[in-house]
């Protein structure tokens, strides 16, 4: 089956409908996007994180995607696929095609804008300027493309209908400008996928954790590759042969994959903590089941529980001799070189260990705060509030190394 364009201008032929493939592609991508976006919102709200601007932009983009998919499916089921090559689209169908094209343009720009807003919260001032430049230029390009979509074509008949704007542009200029916008979107995907590496390399994480987090946040590179393949495929041409309508339908799936892919790659980093919690729960259940099925482990645990519940022996168990008890809170947590003794009323001595001030743990006093870099505080808070659960990675070994504190001898 040759899917490349062929020149069938003078031949009357029927068109092959892509209705089944179109529905399967559009709604499968939409279902995956819906599941991941719902998990992102649920994880944030269940952990008392308020939704931020990037979340709201993604939700609005999701609604645009749903409406646009419905409109595209309606088009291909109600007149888009012509009976044969002698028929033409009427004004109603051309208006619907323009509306769906505008929906695709908005979805592409806003899905990428959401990730740019996320990067604004994490990056330094220099990175923020780069991100702002990308967001502004990308949305301005989108607005101009929306206007040109409804403009008349000066050098081509059939594009001067009553519902078009009252100005005309050349066909070549409009096509080149639209193709330039597609290329610019691909460049933005590559830029947004590279920026996380500059942000994460400054965090005090293990090297493997830095690489893992950067790779997860840079999955937009896959979207850029898909978009580049789509542009190259469309550049091969699309003649009005029997596969003309079929190629147009498959191209709609390619366009939708750019939007859905951009949304999904933004939801995956938020799922990291959720997946780790599931793994920890499953490991705990396996350990519990293993303990319940092993009789030796059960006897050891029950014997240990009895010793704990019985408490320390009374004085009567030692021939009436009294032995002082040392509270747990008075026992130091590390060996100390300096020990002091205190005397009791019955002239007996019992070694009670008191930590020397010079050998105490290096905890700061209550009225002092440990010195810490302002950049570390900002990065930690930004990652946590952005939904990447950086603050909740304490048990996973991802917290920054605690700052060293000087020993102060205070009397």
Automatic annotation (TrEMBL):
Positions of the UniProt region annotated as Disordered: 285-323, 355-411
Ranges of biased composition (kind: Basic and acidic residues): 364-375
Entry-linked Pfam families: Fung_rhodopsin (PF20684)
Predominant cellular place of this UniProt entry's protein: membrane
Compositional bias per record (Polar residues), positions renumbered to this chain: 285-295
Keyword Transferase included in the entry's annotation: no
Stretches that traverse the bilayer: 24-43, 55-74, 94-117, 129-148, 183-200, 212-233, 253-275
Family to which this protein belongs: Belongs to the SAT4 family.
Protein name (record): Rhodopsin domain-containing protein
Source organism per UniProt: Stachybotrys chlorohalonatus (strain IBT 40285)
């Amino acid at each position: 089956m040759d899917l490349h364009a062929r020149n069938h201008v003078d031949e009357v032929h029927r068109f092959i409908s892509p209705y089944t493939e179109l529905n399967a592609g559009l709604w499968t991508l939409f279902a995956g996007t819906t599941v991941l976006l719902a998990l992102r919102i649920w994880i944030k709200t269940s952990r008392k994180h308020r939704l931020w601007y990037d979340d709201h932009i993604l939700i609005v983009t999701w609604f645009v995607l749903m409406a646009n998919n419905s409109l595209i499916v309606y088009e291909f089921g109600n007149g888009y696929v012509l009976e044969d090559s002698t028929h033409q689209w009427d004004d109603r169908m051309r208006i619907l095609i323009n509306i769906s094209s505008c929906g695709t343009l908005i979805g592409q720009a806003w899905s990428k804008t959401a990730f740019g807003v996320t990067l604004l919260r994490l990056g330094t001032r220099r990175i923020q300027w780069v991100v702002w430049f990308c967001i502004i230029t990308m949305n301005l390009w989108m607005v101009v493309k929306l206007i040109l979509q409804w403009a008349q074509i000066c050098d081509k008949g059939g594009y001067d209908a009553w519902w078009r704007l009252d100005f005309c542009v050349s066909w070549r200029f409009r096509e080149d400008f639209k193709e330039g916008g597609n290329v610019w979107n691909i460049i933005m995907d590559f830029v947004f996928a590279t920026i996380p590496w500059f942000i994460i390399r400054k965090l005090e994480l293990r090297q493997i954790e830095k690489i893992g987090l950067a790779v997860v946040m840079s999955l937009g590179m896959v979207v850029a590759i898909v978009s580049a393949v789509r542009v190259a495929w469309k550049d091969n041409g699309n003649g009005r042969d029997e596969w003309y309508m079929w190629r147009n339908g498959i191209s709609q799936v390619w366009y939708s994959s750019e939007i859905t892919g951009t949304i999904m790659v933004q939801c995956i980093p938020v799922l990291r903590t959720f997946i780790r919690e599931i793994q920890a729960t499953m490991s705990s259940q396996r350990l519990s089941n293993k303990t319940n099925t092993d009789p030796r482990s059960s006897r050891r645990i029950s014997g240990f529980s009895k010793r704990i519940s019985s408490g320390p022996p009374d004085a009567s168990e030692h021939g009436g001799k009294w032995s002082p008890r040392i509270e747990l809170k008075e026992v130091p947590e590390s060996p100390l070189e300096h020990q002091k003794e205190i005397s009791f009323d019955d002239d007996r001595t019992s070694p009670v260990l008191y930590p020397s001030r010079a050998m105490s743990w290096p905890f700061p006093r209550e009225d002092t705060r440990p010195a810490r870099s302002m950049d570390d505080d900002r990065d930690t808070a930004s990652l946590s509030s952005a939904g990447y659960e950086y603050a909740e990675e304490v048990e996973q070994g991802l917290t920054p190394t605690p700052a060293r504190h000087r020993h102060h001898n205070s009397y």
